[in-house]
Amino acid sequence: SHFDIGFRRLSYDNPRGMLTPDSGETEDGQVLVGPALEIWPTQLMHLGALSGLSLFVRFQIGVNHQELTTQTGNMAPVPAGASTAWSSLEASLRQRWVLADTVAVVISGGFVRDSLGFDITNQATAPDVPDADYKSVRIGARLAMVGTFAPYIEAENRFVVAGGKFATKFTQASATGVHAAAGVAIHMGALAAKAEGEITSYSWTFSQQDPNADGASDKVFGFAA
Question: Does the structure show a pLDDT above 80 at 97?
Fold first, then answer.
């Protein structure tokens, strides 16, 4: 199983038009849970080659849907008509090599989807929210120590092929993404666990003719276990 707590920070570059200088989005303490599965097909088939090759699949859904609020002047905050709805999916191939029985190197690639979305609770007055659905091709690497307690670091590049509803609000919107994490894995016989800190950052570029902004930065900080 896989457990994440995420904190989102979205900001705009040179906001104007329909956006104000304080436009943006903050979401704290979003919890995602779900199963994760890794299998080693060459080992299962006793092929004797590429023993470090594995298929990794992870799916998570948000379990705490936070209600958005809006505030006018000094008036009390009121519901904005939407609640958060996050989810995440990954399917990757991994190849692991062990060097000198002390260091493991893992190269991986695949598909990842980060949905930082919203459920609209009032269709009559649907709020203008940054509903992003990042679908990306990922290429990453991990460097880890080998042993019972195995610290590791990892980084990946994400080539965003679609950005969801958020991309349709701006002119010629395109995005790129990066992900990095550091943590420790604990191996106890057939059991294993890990804890890590992570950050995922998506950078948006809009057309110079866009009336509302030059671009945007969408970052998610988090902790995983």
Answer: yes
